[in-house]
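Handout, section B. The chain below has 177 residues.
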Amino acid sequence: MRYFIALLGLLNFSFSYQKNNILEIDKNLSVVVTQPNQTSEELLNAVKSSNNDAIYCAILRINNQNSPFVVSKYISAVPETIEHAFERSVNFKPIVSDSKYKIVKSESYKKEGKYLYCKISQITFESGKSVHNIMFYVMQNNKSNNLYELKISCKPEETIANKQCLEKIALSAIFHN
């Protein structure tokens, strides 16, 4: 809950957005982002209070709305396939005490010669307001110890535009050895 309060506060501020094309997430992963964006250490710190696996945060400007973009890196003791890691993600149920959680959609599909793995979840708060979390999962060579989750949170009515943006980012994933 603290994450969402901090998130809402940060989204109300104005940022001087940059048009960075290639964002280096960590030493192993870069992505192409064509939307105006602003990295945010404050948002990363807020997210880390509820997700220790978060490694990168930025605010993207999508259709004149601020959307938080978070990348988490999940490390497994043994290499696993992206299909197996995605299945575990879809079946994962977070503990959210003051809200209701549900999976809106999960799918894997091929686009531009790449397989994509997408999950959309919804959190509904006691106030009745909802947030959609759109997540794409990427992994080097489709089998690794490292699974990256690319995530954008948005209002339900902004899901289509945000999913299209995040899909382009997932398709652009560049892995480094």
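Note. Strands lie at 22-26, 29-32, 37-39, 54-62, 65-81, 99-111, 114-125, 130-138, 143-154, 174-175. Compare this with the example in section A.
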